[in-house]
Automatic annotation (TrEMBL):
It comes from Providencia rustigianii DSM 4541. This is Caudovirales tail fiber assembly protein. InterPro entries: Phage_T4_Gp38_tail_assem, TFA_Chaperone. It comes from the Bacteria.
Amino acid sequence: MSLTKKFERYLPDTSHYSNIVYLKNIDGDWYQQQSMFSQNTVKILYDDEGIIASISNDISMLYPEGYYVLELDEKTIINPDFHRVKNGEIYVYQSPKERVVSENKTKKQTLLREISDAITPLQDAVELGIATDEEREQLRAWKEYRVQVNRVDVELGLDINWPVSPK
């Protein structure tokens, strides 16, 4: 079940209790609508941006003023830090900056692995005392490159100037 209209406060024509906040949407009173929800589901409140504000198995624990209500299978795992709601569906959300930072981390890890793979045989030759002058220079260049890549701040997003490989 999904209530696709936001809830707002109202004063009923006849109020049976004092100090009670009444909420309604186009479909009617919030407290009357609660009976339409299953007990074996997860209910969430979300705003116009799809940001999840509250999660509960118990519909009576939610206060939907200014929010929409969505009901999902009880086995649905929801993390408000990573999930949003769009068109009544849950989806994994990453901001554009988070996505770029994640891609930068992956690129940095990949480069560091490739650099280590290039350094290993050159380092072996030096340690065994059989390295040529060219191999020693390549080793120095690869190690310098590794330090430069390691210093890259992946949080800079698109503003990263990646070091140039010594290939």
